[in-house]
Specification:
disordered C terminus; homodimer; 2 domains; seven-stranded mixed beta sheet; 41% helix; 217 residues; Endonuclease, Chain A; elongated; alpha/beta; 7 strands
Chain lengths: 217, 217
């Protein structure tokens, strides 16, 4: 009987230790913080057709002259932007890239709440997408003052930050050496969200005599 | 005897479970990855004296007219840059800020290995710090081609990345709306290090007839 209880005691100890090891493994797998997305894109991006990104259910092939089926820095950027489901806050110095304009319009038509803050000097330049966005009813505000609003960042759904050196122009995407960080890190994202809200309020057109954010008649 | 062994078995189980809980706590405290530094700076920066950052052991007070003892975005940036102890790889479009130039020269005099990659058009502009760095013997390369080398990032000691919209100019620091991310996240830092090395090799002056990286006589 004594030996039997010794065996039981040792068995119980082994089981308890095994369970503890299992518990540690489970904690590692499930309770440690999920690794936030961190991605870096460099430009210039390869030239490639992006039609399938706007129309994922495209049943016909695109016959444009650009290469097809290539994943590029620009297609990655477009996919991330089009992943927005509830809100998009864009703060950008120069915005003339038509594909990026199309992406913003597509999100707007899906009901995503969009706020765009742009540099007032660049907004007036020929080729700027800002007028197109306004005409579609998207809320746009322009920077006040004489200095540059030189940011190039966008916050999607309060979960994803895209920021870097890249202005939203064709030259930046296709020619220049540029970078973008795409991150879910809250330590990085939250300050940008707060800065956007601060600048949004600061550049409220109701607070100045001359408004540049009213849709043109 | 039977009861005694039952008590021992239960005690052993309790001890094993207690140890497992302790183990889980220890794992949480010690084995989970250390949180990487993530910091965001926004500009324009407040105007303040930065003399004490260059001379931490300053025994006399600075009598300049700027406010003293204020921690600003620019002073944070300077502190981070001056924390480099072995290497600094800078890839920047516009570099005319004299305090930032002074910081690079200070690191160079401490023996930090410095590589600077600059946009060739901006390098030739009056006020650029690139000539001053070259004269001090710092290795500088200029971008080839007709497009902009529009990056604004620096990698310190292969451990810290500073990147964003901020060019290294006085206007960017004191006037514009700008941002900088300062991060130790390896997922973000490593691609920038690799991109720097790629651009450094690509813009090797030995590979082209006209070099802009040779120190002027």
């Amino acid at each position: 009987m004594l030996v039997s209880w010794r065996v039981k005691a040792v068995s119980l100890g082994v089981v308890a230790l095994s369970l503890s090891v299992e518990l540690v493994c489970w904690v590692f797998r499930h309770l440690r913080p999920k690794k936030a997305l961190n991605e870096v894109l460099f430009f210039p991006s390869e030239l490639a057709c992006v039609e399938h990104i706007f129309n994922p259910t495209l049943t016909y092939s695109c016959f444009c002259s650009l290469p097809h089926g290539i994943e590029t820095s620009f297609s990655r950027l477009l996919r991330h932007i089009l992943s927005a489901s509830s809100s998009l806050d864009l703060c950008v110095f120069a915005f003339s890239n038509m594909d990026l304009g199309r992406a913003i319009l597509a999100l707007h038509s899906r009901g995503v709440i969009i706020r765009v803050l742009a540099d007032k000097d660049y907004t007036a330049i020929s080729g700027s997408q800002i007028g197109t966005l306004r005409k579609a009813g998207i809320c746009v505000r322009c920077s006040k003052g004489t200095v540059y609003m030189h940011h190039k960042f966008v916050v999607l759904d309060s979960r994803l930050l895209i920021t870097g050196s890249l202005n939203w122009t064709l030259t930046a995407v296709q020619s220049n050496d540029e970078n973008l960080i795409i991150t879910e890190e809250q330590d990085l994202l939250l300050p940008f969200s707060q800065e956007f809200n601060r600048l949004w309020v600061k550049n409220d057109p109701c607070k100045r005599p001359l408004s540049c954010s009213q849709p043109k008649p």
